[in-house]
Amino acid sequence: MLDLVHLQDSIARIQRAKSLSALHTTFTEEIAALGFDKHTCLSLVDMNNPPPSAIQVFRFPEQWVERYKAKEYYKHDVVLKTVLKNTGPYAWHTLDRSDKRNRKIFAEAKEFGISDGMTVPITLPGHYPCSINMAGDHVDVDPLNYHIMHLLAEYYFLKIIELAGEGKKLFDPPELTPRERECLIWMAKGKSDFEIGCILSISSRTVNGYIENIRKKFDVSTRTQAVALAVSGGIIVP
Amino acid sequence: MIEIVTRFNRQAFASQMEQMFRQRYSVFVEQLNWDLPEAKDGLEVDEFDTDDTIYLLSIDRKGRLQGSKRLNPTMAPHLMSGKFPHLVEGEVPRGPHIWESSRSCIPASGRGNGVIGQLFLAMVETSLLFGVRQITFVAGMDFYQTIIRAGWGHVPLGYPQPDASGEDNIAGSLIIDPIALHNMRRKYGIMQPVVNTAAASIAA
Asked: How far apart are CA A208 and CA A197, in angstroms?
């Protein structure tokens, strides 16, 4: 177990990193001392075709990463699928990995020294939802260390964004009027134009007009896209 | 505009104070299901809403409350000393220049409007006015990333620990100085004061 001064030193080392590669190495060392010696930091995107602003840090064995991408395991891996369901961190051994696909993924990962791990999901306005995944061979990591790694992961993510520059920002969300925002919030909750009209005491035609405006402002063709962008742009909270 | 509300000018903001207690009820009791036994009749008030408490209220042109937070002196009983001392490794930081921030509350309709940044800035401006150099806080880890990227100096005072509902909380401390204010103004793109400085003059 670490004392607090020790923890603050670890944070300071992460904050002092001069480059991204130095940062990744420092973080690897810090979490290795706590039980997990490998990590990834991944925006939730198609790994084989990531958009330029996505974060894709792999400090897992290269062969495993290649295999994982080639087999498109990220589409089925319960570790990544849980990111959007949880706002808090989770230990991998608490996930249901009993289906055939995940049994296979985890059996193969074990051969690369990945037996257990934890994931810290981070959602931040203007950025893709991201996961910091820390893993290793140890299966008996001290529960307190999970909390410490969670804290370090928050500082790690902060520093990645800082070093990668604010250029990593996804896009500048458009300005919405208060009425447009209200319609958007109800639309995201699955309400129809008619229902929104009843809630806001306006006609459904007017609602439709607001939503069409929103769609144009986001420059997208469907309402679903507009809601997705509004969430990642921080205009509405999931 | 953000109003600094102390015991001396509270009367003038009676309506907004009530809106604040209602919004706190709606957010903390109804949405977040915090265990707050003192909350009742749609108002969330607790033992740390005292005469010494300073409130920061974001009020729009029509007098509607957009968001709020409160500051308590650490020399008196406060949230960290009263309810969360276990989150702190060692002693709870206390001193005349150390205040605690709590109950940051933005109703769902106001989120994404930049109110969080304005309340953060208001807290720093108010601290500098009142000679506060350190702000302590207890926060959910889901909010921690927002806190640490604001631009002020920050240190954890302990480890994240789950509460009864399983959510991780952390105790932390912010360093308040003109550098923090400068960094934060640049980050939020607000280069002039956000607090109504006319109100501050009638306070302690």
From this structure: 9
List the single residue in A11, A148, A185 with the smallest CB-CB distance to B159: A148
Domain boundaries, chain A: 4-168, 178-232
Helix (H) or strand (E) holding A81: helix A78-81
Residues of A with CB under 8 A from a CB of B: 3-4, 7-8, 11, 87-89, 122, 124-125, 144, 147-148, 150-151, 154-155, 157-158, 161, 181-182, 185, 234-237
Q: Record the tokens describing residue B72, joined without a space.
A: 């308590």
Name the strand (E) or helix (H) holding B102.
strand B98-105
Strands B134-140, B98-105: pairing is parallel
B108/A185 Cβ within 8 A: yes
**DSSP label at residue A173:** P
Which candidate, A80, A16, A20, places its Cα nearest to that of A44?
A80
* Stated length of chain B: 204
Q: Report in angstroms the alpha-carbon separations of B60 from A45, B2, B192.
A: 39, 9, 17
Q: Could you say which of 1.10.10.10, 3.40.225.10, 1.10.3720.10, 3.40.50.2000 is the CATH number of the domain covering A178-232? A: 1.10.10.10
Residue B178, chain A, CB below 8 Å: the answer is: no
Contact A185 B141 (CB under 8 A): no
CATH number among 3.30.450.80, 3.40.50.10700, 3.60.20.30, 3.40.50.1110, domain A4-168:
3.30.450.80
Calculate how close chain B gets to A179, using CA atoms only, in Å: 11
pLDDT in tens, B68-83: 999 999 999 999 999 9
Reading phi first (left if > 0) and then psi (alpha if -120 to 50, else beta), residue B151 is in left
Structure tokens at A193: 């134009």
Q: Which two tokens stand for residue A70?
A: 């080639």
ipTM of the complex model: 0.83
- Per-residue pLDDT reduced to its tens digit, B118-140: 999 999 999 999 999 999 999 99
Domains of chain B: 2-200 (3.40.630.30)
B62: three-class secondary structure by DSSP: coil
Distance CA A45, CA A24 (A): 20
As a whole number of angstroms, the distance between CA B56 and CA B69 comes to 5
B108 and A185 Cβ atoms separated by less than 8 Å: yes
Q: What is the pLDDT of residue A172?
A: 61
Residue B135, SS3 per DSSP: strand
Average per-residue pLDDT for chain A: 89
